[in-house]
Amino acid sequence: MTVADELEPVTPETEATEAEEPIKQRKNGLYPGVSDELAENMKSGWADTELHGLKPIAQAAETAARRAALSARFPGDRLVIPSGNLKTRSNDTEYPFRASVEYAYLTGGRPDDSTDGVLVLEPTGAEGHEATIYLLPRSDRENGEFWLSGQGELWVGRRHSLTESAELYGIPAADVRELADKLREATGPVRVVRGYDAGIEAALHDKVTAERDDELRVFLSEARLVKDAFEIGELQKAVDSTVRGFEDVVRVLDRAEATSERYIEGTFFLRARVEGNDVGYGSICASGPHATTLHWVRNDGPVRSGDLLLLDAGVETHTYYTADVTRTLPVNGTFSAIQRKIYDAVFDAQEAGIAAVRPGGKYRDFHDAAQHVLAERLVEWGLVEGPVERVLELGLQRRWTLHGTGHMLGMDVHDCAAARVESYVDGTLEPGMVLTVEPGLYFQADDLTVPEEYRGIGVRIEDDILVTEDGNRNLSAGLPRGSAEVERWMASLKGSRD
Ligand code: GLY
Ligand code: MN
Fold first, then answer.
1. Is 312 in the pocket of ligand 1 (CB under 6 A)?
2. What are the pLDDT digits (tens) for 303-334?
3. Number of CB atoms found within 10 A of residue 333's CB
4. Pocket of ligand 1 contains residue 324 by CB under 6 Å
5. How many Cα atoms occupy the beta-carbon half-sphere of 15 within 13 Å?
6. How far is the C-alpha of 364 from the C-alpha of 425, rounded, in Å?
7. Is 185 exposed, middle or buried (0-12, 13-18, 19+ CB in 10 A)?
8. 53: which residues sit within 8 A by CB, 6+ positions away?
9. Structure pTM?
């Protein structure tokens, strides 16, 4: 059901002015299905549903500390951090809303109440800022917006009032519909996080520069490199749900065999939606030779006994933290000899990679350690001519290892992407960082440089690793990794299928 089922289509010109004078437009006949009597009737007879005494969100102290760090970095500047707008999927349907990571990180804002939201930090002098969240208020009942606009609360659900939002987030809240004008009139230096809200950017276009805005974006990306205790707890929750999602998949492999990879995608998605907000990225449910396609998300192929299933998937929590876990599983529960040989090599590489994750170590160490093991095996198997150091120097192993061995993980699956090279890939690991370790070997079905038995086999093993004070902790240790352990685990779950 859509707004259009009930009302005549609204012309583009009326959409542009609807927010200002909807009731007048309606009287002018633009909503001919609504009589004046009905319009009057709908204005009244509604209970006051304002909520009182709301408890602040669980991470209110952490978001305040994050805002304080931001304030200290940019004294005297007005900082504008939009949450973003709805994006059209087609015609009058939109993609599910997801707040920008920058906004969510600084406010704790959630999908149900941050559409069009903007966090503004106003400088209070040479030092310090006052934060305000600008949000859509409750839908107006007097002008009919609540039931006549496609984004009215009657269509999309109740929003928090500005007073409720202020209580929840611990930040004064104001009406976002007044913000663009305020920003246009504002004086003094401004920085905005670009790419989320064209209206806000347009209001600021003569006040900002790309270079200064980029400094804000980079700071907010690097601030997220080290996770606080709340974030680590959320990442563990995401991983725990993901572990259950993988178990769900193993339990229904026979149904996937009878249908397609989509059965696996749907099964995992069910867990993600019931326990979390969503999947953190398109689930890769790659069976047989599809496992050699790194981001196989079409998921429309067959699932066959005797083949491997590469499942790379992660549940995202309601606070937007995502897991990113991969297991490569024999569909029938037992690895063939060649599958096991390749799997065990990837496992050994992952073990070496995980062992290299420690505070004070270089970020690149885990990649180098894993690549070394994979290059050794490829030489040993006669697929590339040694010595190993030559292979690594020329990068020849990359024909089959294809991608980097991991990345930072957090609110984005590939987190902190705007961090500078010196802070990330050329940087040093610190306690509180969370990264994936995910080596793989991929032998394309049409790769004539390897014996036929290798072709069409792809293996990746991926875990989510927290850097601790004295080493690391595998957040996804709840899923077995060694080939024999994987087989035992699959057999135990098969026994519990209905
Ligand atoms: N999970 C997909 C990736 O890391 O690219
Ligand atoms: Mn990954």
1. yes
2. 999 999 999 999 999 999 999 999 999 999 99
3. 17
4. yes
5. 8
6. 6
7. exposed
8. 167
9. 0.93
